[in-house]
Design goal:
Layout: H1 36-50, H2 55-79, H3 87-107, H4 115-130, H5 137-155, H6 180-203, H7 210-236, H8 241-263, H9 273-293
Helix pairs in contact: 1-2, 1-5, 1-6, 1-9, 2-3, 2-4, 4-5, 5-6, 6-7, 6-9, 7-8, 8-9
Length: about 300
């Protein structure tokens, strides 16, 4: 005898690799701006190397990255009109930042002298987020400025950093702010990272925009002029061979960045985000190597 069977229950097809809704991570936990990580990490590492890193340098790096995660999550929450689903990463990263930042300031209270500077930069960027202008030139500039300034902050935490970061009183000068070598290295990193703003725009959001391309090319041309001027000073004052070699390296790297700014946006088909990312890694490594050698420019001349 045939047996009757209950009709099969309809099933909903699942996309391969899709996560169940209950396990899907909400927005704001992981930033999509992958290129920002190099800009966040390099200045801290370079500043630490300049004055011999300590364990506080490592703590500064972890705190700084946590601050970025909290900043990103907060900005997303503000742009989303403070909807509740965007709040969990804000709470989590803010809590971690309070713990890490509190530990860092307890061991290096002199860092509080940087508070007015970073407070102003943070306020400006949050206003941009409230106005949904997080992709504006102003916000990009503020973000890059805050990142490259960490070179000086990190230098102030090293064994040779001055004035002492462990003292809150005695001077109004923030740790690292009176170190000419730290500022010179910061200038090199700033020249590069500020230039990435228009350059990356010409490849992604502003493809084909001749005005943005002109800004990118003009900025990188100025970097070449500045590097040539540094080389001219070194040669005129008959600096040591090592100093002249560093100046030549500056010119070569600046010229390479200018060639990149001119040629890559003309490529067809357009470079993929992956290719752009690898290009940024290579450029960042080259600039970092030259930046670390910049203090050699202060070597004494061969005469006098």
């Amino acid at each position: 005898m045939p047996t009757s069977r209950a009709p099969a229950r309809p099933t909903t097809p699942r996309t391969a690799g899709a996560r169940p809704a209950s396990r899907r991570r909400g927005p704001g936990w992981v930033p999509r701006e992958h290129g920002a990580w190099a800009m966040l990490v390099v200045p801290v590492l370079v500043g630490g190397v300049l004055t011999s890193p300590t364990w506080r340098t490592a703590l500064l790096l972890v705190t700084w990255l946590t601050a970025y995660l909290a900043f990103h999550a907060t900005g997303l929450w503000l742009r989303a009109s403070r909807r509740p689903r965007y709040l969990p990463p804000v709470r989590a990263y803010a809590t971690a930042l309070v713990l890490l930042g509190g530990t860092l300031l307890a061991t290096a209270p002199g860092l509080l002298r940087w508070a007015p500077v970073y407070g102003a930069l943070l306020a400006t960027s949050l206003v941009c987020s409230l106005r949904r202008a997080d992709r504006s030139w102003l916000n990009d500039g503020v973000t890059v400025g805050a990142a490259v300034l960490m070179t000086v902050v990190s230098a102030g935490l090293g064994h040779d950093g001055t004035p002492p970061a462990t003292a809150l009183t005695g001077t109004w000068v923030p740790p690292g702010a009176d170190d000419p070598a730290a500022w010179a290295v910061t200038a090199v990193l700033a020249g590069y990272f500020f230039g990435t703003v228009p350059y990356v725009k010409t490849l992604l959001r502003e493809r084909g925009n001749r005005a943005v391309l002109s800004v990118s090319v003009a900025w990188h041309a100025l970097l070449v002029v500045a590097a040539v001027a540094v080389l001219a000073v070194q040669v005129t004052h008959e600096r040591a061979a090592g100093s002249i070699a560093v100046a030549v390296a500056l010119v070569v790297v600046a010229a390479g960045l200018l060639a990149r700014a001119v040629l890559v946006p003309r490529r067809r088909p357009w470079p993929s985000p992956r290719a752009i990312g690898f290009g940024e890694i290579a450029a960042t490594l080259a600039v970092t190597a030259v930046a670390l050698a910049v203090p050699a420019l202060a070597a004494p001349s061969l005469v006098g």
